[in-house]
Amino acid sequence: QVQLQESGPGLVKPSETLSLTCAVSGYSVSGGYYWGWIRQAPGKGLEWIGSISHNGNIYYNPSLKSRLTMSVDTSKNQFSLKLSSVTAADTAIYYCARGLTIIVVAPFDYWGQGTLVTVSS
Amino acid sequence: EIVLTESPGTLFLSPGERATLSCRASQSVSSSYFAWYQQKPGQAPRLLIYGASSRATGIPDRFSGSGSGTDFTLTIDRLEPEDFAVYYCQQYGSSPVTFGQGTKVQSK
Question: I need a labelling partner for B34 at 20 to 30 A (CA). Which of A15, B27, B93, B108 fits?
């Protein structure tokens, strides 16, 4: 059973960097597939942030690309997200997820439970 | 960027009825790289349909997807109480991956 679990600070100050990690169990991140981040502002819809493959192929949402860094740590079986220069507009539930196939970055068949990140001073 | 517009915004139905949800894309979605998700309050989205018409693992056959190009449909036959939720469409054929704004299926 594939399981994903997000972790990171629940509160980040404006202009600082948001850092989240997604720990994967039940499957090796180096075994293929894309690993993605999706966020959902309170009461709003879903926004794809970006996806990364085990061998370093990375796809970012152009709207966030200048502030984004994603990486994979195969030794810890996890992948990470860093979003710099955050503002209140980055307040959201952040989900990590696994892509269904090795060919395209989506759709997402396994999801973490999500973690709420609030940007506030 | 491909914009996805879902309709209606809210669907009021009773258990046992059929739900028909629509999603229109601003451009043609390549290779039917199209999916539907269900989301209940406080939960992560759940993949229902991918490739426009393939059911994900464990999804009951009362859920079906159809469509191609710019027009896609999710049909839920014989609504069960657990089907009342928000449904999102998604295209993953062009970057960036985009989602629709959601359709809420609410009990009448």
Answer: B108
| CA of residue B70 relative to chain centroid, distance | 14
Of A61, A104, A113, the CB nearest to B44: A113
CA dist., res. B102 & res. A119, Å (int): 25
Contact A56, A72 (CB under 8 A): yes
Apex CA B11: angle with CA B5 and CA B15, to 5°?
140
∠ CA A111-B63-A99, nearest 5°, is: 25
Scan residues 31-50 of A and list those with Cβ closer than 8 Å to B.
Answer: 38, 45-48
Query: Which residues of B are less than 8 Å from A2 in CB distance?
Result: none
Burial class (CB in 10 A: 0-12, 13-18, 19+), A46: buried
Residue-level pLDDT, tens digit, chain B, 108 residues: 999 999 999 999 999 999 999 999 999 998 789 999 999 999 999 999 999 999 999 999 999 999 999 999 999 999 999 999 999 999 999 999 999 999 999 999
CB atoms within 10 A of CB B12: 11
Helix (H) or strand (E) holding B19: strand B19-25
CB of A100 within 8 Å of any CB in chain B?
yes
Q: How far is B13 from chain A (nearest CA, A)?
A: 22
Q: Do B56 and A109 touch (CB under 8 A)?
A: yes
